[in-house]
Design goal:
alpha+beta, 2 strands
Length: 75
């Protein structure tokens, strides 16, 4: 498991779709259900023909597999 950064297809238009179709509905859904969630939600996303899709929702705090590193990072 890992990640790639920067993500070449994640331009402003794609990120707007993520915000409108995934992030906002998730936060609004928590509120509608009366869930007073405090913490971080990790969104596992995939690009399907230019459309963002959710693979998983997860909570990760201090988990090294969620750390992204570009070519300038040192191990």
């Amino acid at each position: 498991m890992g990640s790639v950064t920067p993500v070449p297809f994640a331009d402003a238009a794609w990120m707007k779709k993520v915000d409108e179709r995934i992030i906002r509905p998730t936060v609004e859904g928590l509120a509608q259900e009366g869930i007073d969630y405090k913490g971080f939600i990790f969104l596992g996303l995939i690009n399907v023909k230019g459309e963002p899709m959710v693979i998983e929702y997860n909570v990760r705090m201090g988990d090294p597999e969620t750390e992204s590193c570009d070519a300038s990072c040192e191990e």
